[in-house]
Each structure stands twice: as structure tokens, then as C-alpha cells.
User: Fold this.
Amino acid sequence: MRRADAGPVRGARQGRPTLEEVAERAGVSRATVSRVVNGQTTVNEDLRRAVEAAADELGYVPHAAARSLVTHRTDSVALILPESPNRVFSDDQFFPGVIRGVATELDAAGKLLVLMTTGSAEARQRAERYAVGGHVDGVMFASLHDADLLPELMIRRGVPVVCNGLPQLEAPCIDVDHAGGVRAAVEYLVAQGRRRIASIAGPLDMVAGRARLDGYREVLAEADRRAIVAVGDFTAESGQTAMRQLLADEPELDAVFVASDLMAHGALQALREAGRRVPEDVAVVGFDDIALASYSDPPLTTVRQPIAEIGRTMARTMLRLLEGGEVAPMTILPTELVVRESA
Assistant:
């Protein structure tokens, strides 16, 4: 029941207030309202106050959000990492490297980075509602898994998408030369005379995991060597577990190619526990060249992928896409073997 002395109750509006409605309420032109909400300083102070009062009465969203209504841009771009927060904010330096690269490019372009982790069904639903609801101009994905349907869903809903690691999507994809990097690493071990070369592969539901395992198997087949494989999940703990398994199954192995530096760090721990000397008894080569590789004991020979450049290239591609420019459907960044003391 409404009290008799209550003030007027504003009814719910159908849709957002428009520039035209603000202009009519303030008694000014639409152009004047546009200049005020875009922060221009060339408007007479009395007119500015009238526009601001009218916008407040109508519930018109001021400043940056108002400019978004006019330009249909939010000046923000999302980076979605389909992992849990615990995984993203762990000791895996891939994620901060990609985030740093993305943030650097977007900051230079005057855009806001919105970071989302979608390691659960609820988080994926929230990210979908946010992006499809027009709160960002586009979405970038990194660390994608095969079963993740969110990128394809957003593409169907008309959201601009750039991805890392899932080239079958109908969206620009940025990746690295997995095959070339792995070939350099495994051929290096073969050239050293290593006979029993094992591999700790990454998750096989990810392009990086499969591509690095395929590259390892291809080189070993060419060298008439038998593949010896255990599978991890790109964490140090999984590398340690996989290395223990390999030593139990193949005690005579004399080298191991590991699909990430973090897993290689775990493998080095397992080798120390087993009393195996690196590289005298077992040579170890990783993939990534994160900072940890230089400080491992011994320092890790590894394949360098340009992690920050992945992020920068994703962001540059997204910015070109948003401006209507042409973008390559696939961009492959180079990798290189960095030789240190572990092999």
C-alpha cells in the first residue's frame, strides 16, 4: 500500500534512456548531450548542468558507460582462462606471462582487461552471461581444452573471439611451433647418443599436449627408437609422479623429454629421489623456458616458447578484429631450443 504522503514513484522504464530523451528533458540538442557525456570541455557550464540534471532524473548512465551506449563499445576485452583460480594463480608461469602480454597491448590501446577463470560450470555460465550481455567488446581464450564449448557458443552469439590452442574454431588462433620445438629437442637427445628416450606428455585434451607428444613420437620413429610415455597435467606434482612411473617401467631409460618446464621440475625431483644423476644418467629437456628453468638444479635445457608474445599477439589480433581489419586465421610463433646443463 502506498502512503498518502509519499512522493511520486518512478515506474520501470522499458529500455535504457536515450540521448534524445536527455536532450528533450534538458532543452538542448542531441549533439550537446553527446558532448557532455563524452567529457568534452567546450560546453557552456549552464548547459552542462542542465544535461547532467536531466540525465540524473532519467537514470541515464554517465561518462564511460554512457559513451558505450553511444558508440556500442565498452572499451574492454575479456581474457578467459578455462582453469580454476588455484591453477591460474599457482606456480605455473604460463598464465601470468600470457596475462602480462595481453595487458601490455590493451593498456597501450586504452582498453580495459577483464580477466575471468572458468574452471567450473557455474563460472562458465557467468562468463557467458557477461560476454553475451555486451559487457565486453570481445573475448580471448587461452589454455583451451577440447570439451570447452564456451568459445564456439560465443562465436555463434556474435561475440568477437580470438583463441590460443584450438585451431578448429572459426576464429583467429594464436599458437606456437610445437612440432619444430619438439623436433629440435628430441633430435638433440638422439644426437647425444641417448637410446631410451622417454616423454612426459601434457594433457591429451589440449592441443599443446597432443602436438608435443606427436612430435616426440615422430622423431623417435625416424630414429628407430621406441616411444616410452607417461602423461601429466602440466603441474610439477604430475611430472614427479610420471617420472617415478617411467623409472619403475623403464629403469634403463637415459633421457626424458618433458612437455612443460613445471613438469620437468617435478621430474628432476623424482630423479634425485631415485639417485639418478642429471645429465650423466638421465638427460632432461623441458618446454616453455619459464624463469624456473634457469634456476633448476641443474639448470634446465628446454624449448623456449614466447609466452608473453602469445598474449601480445592475441591482443593485437583482437584489436584489429574490433576495428574491422583483416586478421590471419592462424598465427604460429617460433620456438627454439635453449641448451643448459640438464642435457
